[in-house]
Amino acid sequence: MKINTDKNKVEELLTRGVDEVIDKSHLRKKLLSGKKLRVKLGIDPTSPNIHIGRSIPLLKLRDFQKLGHQLVFIIGDFTGVVGDTSDKDSERPMLSKEKVKENMKDYIKQAAKIIDMDKCETRYNSEWLAKLGYWEISNQADSFSLAEFIARENIRRRLNASTRVSLRELLYPLMQGYDSVAVKAEVEIGGTDQRFNLLAGRTLQTMYKQEAQDIIMGPLLEGTDGRKMSSSWGNTIDLSADANDMFGKIMSISDDLIIKYLTLATRVSMEAVKKGEKELASGNNPRDLKITLACEIVKMYHSEKAAKNAREYFVNTFSKRETPLDIPEIKPSSYDIVTVLVESKICSSKGDARRVIQQGGVKVNGKKISSFAFKVKKGDTAQKGSRWFAKIL
């Protein structure tokens, strides 16, 4: 495939949803040269689902693919065990190899919703990281100082609070950096929270006599509760979610995130995004633009028909306050309300179910309940908010 060097497309690639590029002038020159670049993105399978927050670098990867460049998608089956705490205020626990293997089972299938996996080089970093010994690791570690590591904001904050920072956490940037060496990456994509790890790739590539990769860093996306989207917080919109759930969760985001979602999580033209921004500024109802956003995202991961049906479902259940006809059915292992909410996937965990009950957000047959011990009966309809329902069998 011939490399597309269209200046407008290259400029949008370097600016849309981008916080920082290192080195921007160098990368622009390469993109305009017609050279086919090796563009790397690594994702650790710390949960079974890829969420829309992670779609930001995946969409940027697709932008490169559409211009004809070679994608290198790394599934961190080794780094996923160790764990990266770049975006955490506490130590991330190590995962078992079995758990990581279970989590990554559908990662390629989920990534394929965005990029063409048939034209993508897929790698697992245990292929090279599991082979490293102390001699090699010591040589790599010599390229960094402890001062550089603890200068990172979240690490400094934890140390100031006398919160434990394990030596294992110091090794993670070496691992991500060595990934770039192993696959000879020329560009790496990541979030702003990954800055230190991304720069480690440049340092190690120089150490191994490779040309230092260029870096594109994108912003982080807030989830349904306004905090950074994170599987550990349960505020995600997963790529594997069904159309109605995906639509409803997008409609629940804060109005001030609509433009950010349109820019980062879709490929609606920037002209359309700017038009929407002007409409909001002039006092138009944010709900209308949010419906457009929800339709666009559902269409991306399902189909245009699914988006249309999800819109109708949302309007009927939320705007018209009607109970939908196609309520999912569940035969729970236990008939207490907490179990029902979790097993029907209305709530993400027992803790989430108790929190929603405590906040008055759960009804059975239209009546609000307040007891965690409440028992449903066969034929009952459990409901969370105005969008999530389950019929008890």
Describe this structure in words.
It is globular, with a radius of gyration of 23 Å. It folds into three domains: 215 residues, HUPs (Rossmann fold, 3-Layer(aba) Sandwich), CATH 3.40.50.620; 79 residues, Tyrosyl-Transfer RNA Synthetase; 64 residues, Roll (Structural Genomics Hypothetical 15.5 Kd Protein In mrcA-pckA Intergenic Region, Chain A), CATH 3.10.290.10. 46% of the residues lie in helices and 12% in strands. The protein has 393 residues and is of the alpha/beta class. The strands form two sheets. Strands 1-6-5-2-3-4 form a six-stranded mixed β-sheet, with helices on both faces. It starts with 6 loop residues before the first helix and ends with a strand.
Indicate the topology.
Layout: H1 7-15, E1 20-22, H2 24-33, E2 38-43, H3 52-66, E3 70-75, H4 79-82, H5 97-103, H6 107-111, E4 120-124, H7 126-129, H8 134-141, H9 146-150, H10 153-160, H11 167-183, E5 187-191, H12 195-207, E6 214-218, H13 243-251, H14 258-265, H15 270-281, H16 286-301, H17 304-319, E7 329-330, H18 337-343, H19 350-358, E8 362-364, E9 367-368, E10 381-384, E11 388-392
- What is the molecular shape? globular
Helix content: 40-55%
Number of strands: 11
Could you give the order of the helices and strands?
HEHEHEHHHEHHHHHEHEHHHHHEHHEEEE
Structural class designation: alpha/beta
C-alpha termini separation: 54 Å
- Architecture per CATH nomenclature, i.e. the level-2 architecture of the largest domain: 3-Layer(aba) Sandwich
Let me know the CATH homologous superfamily of the largest domain: HUPs
Tell me the strand order in the biggest sheet.
1-6-5-2-3-4
- Main pleated-sheet profile: 6 strands, mixed
Strand residues, percent: 5-15%
Give the CATH topology of the largest domain: Rossmann fold
Which spans of ≥5 residues are poorly predicted at pLDDT below 50?
none
CATH class of the largest domain: Alpha Beta
Overall tally of structural domains: 3
- Please give the count of helices: 19
Overall pLDDT, averaged? 90
- Round the Cα radius of gyration to an integer and report it: 23 Å
